[in-house]
Amino acid sequence: MKIYRFAPLVAAFCIAAGCAAEVNYGEYVSENRYGLYLYEDDGIKIKLSTAKKESPFVADGICGKTGDLTEITVKTEKSHSQAQITSQSFTGGDMSYLSARDAWYISFGGAPEGGEIKVTLTLDGEKTDYTLQSVLTDEVMSGESALGCVREHASGLFEELTENGTLNAEIFIRLLYDGKCFYYVGVCDREGRINAFLVDGQSGKIVAEREHRM
């Protein structure tokens, strides 16, 4: 397993370096989760994410056509037999229960915007209104800037996968939140090998990395 280790870079340098790249690696992003809205209280956890994502999504090292996608998960302390979610920002509808996640789930095309999203959650016929707050602040860099940090940090990896101005891989960028914002950046080659990096959303530092296969 190859490990590429370089000194962490600050966000400002990463952004400038990304602009200087000869290859537009943004063209190879098959998933860019750029929005994340959360609510947690009273035994309810609601997470709404917005993304540009390949459809159908296949981790095969090739970036297909992408489109806007919204995904919502709801976790409850109590058991319920039915769940629906609606909003003025989107149509929504019936949610499916995913036992593997122990959560209710729905996805649909399009992406709501703004600093907050108001939703109505209906559990077994009982409606409750919630306000989801965006995790993004002015201090958080974009996913494209996080990719620039990874490209500088693991320049050898990108050189290895780039041939005649073409990247023989696809890239996943996912906004995460754990007390603060991070970005997961994964580079998946044609053999299914994924080099994954966790980027601090404010400083641009690479805080973790690993290699794995799908």
Explain how this protein is built.
- Helices cover 13% and strands 50% of the residues.
- The protein is mostly beta strands.
- The strands form two sheets. Strands 1, 2, 3, 4, 5, 6, 7, 8, 9, 12, 13, 14 and 15 form a 13-stranded mixed β-sheet that branches. The protein has a two-stranded antiparallel ribbon with strand order 10-11.
- Strand 14 and strand 15 form a beta hairpin.
- Helix 1 crosses helix 2.
- It starts with 10 loop residues before the first helix and ends with a strand.
- The N terminus is likely disordered.
What are the main properties of this structure?
214 residues; mainly beta; 13-stranded mixed beta sheet; two-stranded antiparallel ribbon; 3 helices; elongated; disordered N terminus
Write the layout of secondary structure elements.
Elements: H1 11-19, E1 29-41, E2 44-54, E3 66-76, E4 83-86, E5 93-94, E6 96-98, E7 103-109, E8 116-123, E9 126-134, H2 143-153, H3 155-161, E10 162-163, E11 166-167, E12 169-177, E13 181-189, E14 193-200, E15 206-213
Parallel strand pairs: 1-12
Antiparallel strand pairs: 1-2, 1-9, 2-3, 3-7, 4-5, 4-8, 6-7, 8-9, 10-11, 12-13, 13-14, 14-15
Helix pairs in contact: 1-2
